[in-house]
Amino acid sequence: MKNVNQNFKDETIWIVGASSGIGKALAELLSNEGANLILSARRTIELENINQDLGGKHKILKLDAGNDAEIEKAFTTLKAENIKINRAIFLAALYEPQKIKDLDTEFCEKLFKVNVLGCFSFTKHMLTQFKQQNSDVKQIALCGSIAAYTGLPNGQPYSASKAAVQNFAESLRVESSKDIDIKLISPGFIRTRITDKNNFPMPFIQEPEDAAKAIAKGLKSKKFEIHFPKRFTLLLKLLRALPYWLALPITKNLK
Ligand SMILES: NC(=O)c1ccc[n+]([C@@H]2O[C@H](COP(=O)([O-])OP(=O)(O)OC[C@H]3O[C@@H](n4cnc5c(N)ncnc54)[C@H](OP(=O)(O)O)[C@@H]3O)[C@@H](O)[C@H]2O)c1
């Protein structure tokens, strides 16, 4: 049944990383709530299928966020088509659980190109686009993680890349002009391709649809950070606030 809430009616929302997991669930929810979507990722077949399920009304824009030239090209395409963006949500990320002793530097480079440099470059272009465009809603939402709060066992280099995104979003929030709203999304464990790779217990794991609901609500709120599930994120925030001599022995046991 169609959702009667049309909270995002006629807004144009660009989701980068829309082909699976949280991005896919968010696309479904926002479409249901009246948004016009631009769906980006590398796997266009998945994007086409999602769009078809949503009535074929959205735009597919293939984008490899690890390739700066492709990011620039995507913005040129939108500009040429005179498309104004209201909200841009950057979810694209790579993940492999790795202990530091097994660090694969080639993979690290790939991961940082997407998770960090892709995110930074996308944001820079989006800010330029927002400066040139006249619209009431101008929002950029970047995806960090609970893994960014503190270095966790087995999380490298992913945790470090998410810490970079979190720090970047914090700077961006304080640097940006008032008319551009910056959000940081910090999910706990969500059942997607990412968590399918984990072979350790994941407390309070949620479904992508739960994440989508929390994100959609957060996009409309005045708060900077959209974090969920609260019963888990608040505990981790408490851990982060402890002095290292107390926090590190606790973290060591979070395997
Ligand atoms: N699942 C969790 O527990 C969890 C927790 C905290 C944070 N997060 C964050 O949530 C976001 C979504 O992840 P997910 O859990 O939904 O996993 P996912 O299903 O693997 O989604 C990742 C998305 O990123 C896209 N992507 C990856 N590399 C890309 C690239 N080079 N260019 C463009 N798109 C790219 C993927 O599409 P293609 O492969 O088609 O390109 C996919 O749509 C990520 O930022 C992740 O770090 C997830």
Describe this structure in words.
With 255 residues, the protein is an alpha/beta fold. The protein has a single domain (12-252), classed as NAD(P)-binding Rossmann-like Domain (Rossmann fold, 3-Layer(aba) Sandwich). Helices cover 45% and strands 13% of the residues. The protein has eight helices and seven strands, in the order E-H-E-H-E-H-E-H-E-H-E-H-E-H-H. It has helices at 21-32, 44-53, 68-80, 105-132, 158-175, 208-219, 230-241, 244-252; strands spanning 12-16, 36-40, 59-60, 87-90, 139-143, 181-187, 225-228. The protein has a seven-stranded parallel sheet, with helices on both faces. Strand 1, helix 1 and strand 2 (36-40) form a beta-alpha-beta unit. Helix 3 packs parallel to helix 4 (105-132) and helix 4 runs parallel beside helix 5 (158-175). The longest helix is centred in the middle third of the chain and has 28 residues, at 105-132. It is globular, with a radius of gyration of 18 Å. The structure holds NADP nicotinamide-adenine-dinucleotide phosphate (NAP). Residues 17-23, 41-43, 46, 63-66, 91-94, 114, 143, 145, 187, 189-190, 192-195 line the site of NADP nicotinamide-adenine-dinucleotide phosphate.
Q: Strand fraction band?
A: 5-15%
Q: What structural category characterises the helix and strand content?
A: alpha/beta
Q: What name is given to the CATH topology?
A: Rossmann fold
Instruction: Spell out the helices and strands N to C.
Output: EHEHEHEHEHEHEHH
Uncertain residue segments: none
- The total count of helices amounts to 8
| Name of the top-level CATH class | Alpha Beta
Shape: globular
CATH superfamily: NAD(P)-binding Rossmann-like Domain
Q: Would you tell me the overall average pLDDT?
A: 95
Q: Care to count the β-strands?
A: 7
Distance N to C terminus: 41 Å
Known CATH architecture = 3-Layer(aba) Sandwich
Total of domains: 1
* Ligand list: NADP nicotinamide-adenine-dinucleotide phosphate
Residue share in helix: 40-55%
